[in-house]
UniProtKB/TrEMBL annotation:
NCBIfam families: IV_pilin_GFxxxE, typeII_sec_gspG
Domain (Type II secretion system protein GspG C-terminal) ranges: 36-141
InterPro entries with a match to the protein in the record: Bac_GSPG_pilin, N_methyl_site, Pilin-like, T2SS_protein-GspG_C, Type2_sec_GspG
Source species, domain of life: Bacteria
Principal subcellular localisation of the protein: membrane
Name the UniProt record assigns to this protein: Type II secretion system core protein G
Membrane topology summary: Single-pass membrane protein
Transmembrane segments: 12-33
Gene Ontology BP annotations: protein secretion by the type II secretion system
Gene behind this protein: gspG
Pfam entry (one): T2SSG
Keywords: Cell inner membrane, Cell membrane, Membrane, Methylation, Transmembrane, Transmembrane helix
């Protein structure tokens, strides 16, 4: 007659086998994670460029209606709320509130601009002028 332990031998993983598997998973994560996070940074930059393009189009529509771009003091808020003294304002020019850049900072708007009739920019991930890579400024010029 066979005993229970002979019919169902207890087999499991040794500690060494588990450690080898964990090291392999760690190595794979070490190779994949940097590439994954680099793609996230690129997508945030693309979102910022798309938002700048949308804001530019809204500013152009504002200019067609009013005859000029909003002043720096009025800022991008003039796209959502009628500035005092404007009769030809036909906004709001955005469907939602003025967006923040993908890093949670407000877009910088200057009118008149140094590079055109208006300057519109995001300072990138670091929120400071200048920078390279993900911290590079994203501009409309």
């Amino acid at each position: 007659m066979t005993t229970r332990s002979q019919r169902f031998p207890h087999r499991g993983f040794t500690l060494l086998e588990l450690l080898v598997v964990m090291v392999i998973i760690g190595l794979l994560a070490g190779f994949v994670a940097p590439r994954f996070f680099a793609q996230i940074g690129k997508s945030e930059t693309k979102v910022a460029r798309a938002q700048l393009d949308s804001l530019e189009k809204s500013l152009d529509q504002y200019r067609l209606d009013v005859g000029r771009y909003p002043s720096s003091e009025q800022g991008l808020a003039a796209l959502m709320e009628r500035p005092s003294g404007l009769t030809r304002w036909a906004g709001p020019y955005l469907k939602k509130a003025v967006p923040l850049d993908p890093w949670g900072n407000a877009y910088v708007y200057k009118s008149p601009g140094e590079h055109g009739e208006f300057d519109l920019l995001s300072y990138g991930k670091d929120g400071q002028p200048g920078g390279t890579g993900e911290a590079e400024d994203i501009t409309n010029w």
